[in-house]
Amino acid sequence: MFDSAFISSLLVIITINIVLSGDNAVVIAIACRKLAPAQRKKAILWGTFLAVIVRVIATVLAVYLLKIPFLYLVGGVVLLWISYNLLREEDEDNQIKSSEDMVQAVKTIVVADVMMGLDNVLAIAGAANGNIVLIVLGLIISVPLMVFGSQLILKAMERFSWLVYLGSAVLAWAAVNMITNEEVIADWLSQWTGLEAVIKIVIVALVLLLGYWQRSHHDQAHAE
């Protein structure tokens, strides 16, 4: 099984995972940033584990996923909501218990990974050429790198709070890319040069402005 062709395909899959999982590391970091250190580690491990399981299943079913109409559009809209929601500040009186916070963080990681992982899934499915062993091995090897990356991003966010906005912008950009890659929308945008770039910039800016306004409003209300 482990001949040169298998090894080369495995290396390609690992590379795809590393290159396309940068956004996922950002999701993990932002989703877990408010948790206590002990719960943070659990949320990262559980969220990543469940996301990988879902991604393996999705990759195996990639051929069927391609037939779902408006898949990229729906995924992009969900991811846009996640990118905004990660900027929101909740009132302390309304905060849920820590254990439930961890569950919510895990849910966010899994949902965002599924939405963002469509390109990843399709690329891996193509590189694996239907070999499920290759798909599973590639993901297993890549997961520790994604977890390690999220830990580094978490530490950076604790030191530089503005990185939360940068992370949200990355997610929003990925979301808009998904939406504009939807076949119907891509065909429509192709009629006007430069319109796609303008739409992307406007939507990402809108997400960041709404997030900033909500956080500022929350801080002002909390101070009062």
From TrEMBL:
A Pfam family recorded for this sequence: TerC
Mind listing the UniProt keywords for this protein, alphabetically? Membrane, Transmembrane, Transmembrane helix
Q: What is its main location?
A: membrane
Topology class, membrane? Multi-pass membrane protein
> Which subcellular locations apply to this protein?
Membrane
The keyword Transmembrane is annotated on this UniProt entry: yes
Spans traversing the lipid bilayer: 6-31, 43-64, 70-87, 108-126, 132-153, 160-180, 192-213
PANTHER family under this entry? Answer: MEMBRANE BOUND PREDICTED REDOX MODULATOR, SLL1022 PROTEIN
The entry sums up its family as follows: Belongs to the TerC family.
Q: What is this protein called?
A: Tellurium resistance protein TerC
Which organism was this protein described from?
Answer: Brevibacillus choshinensis
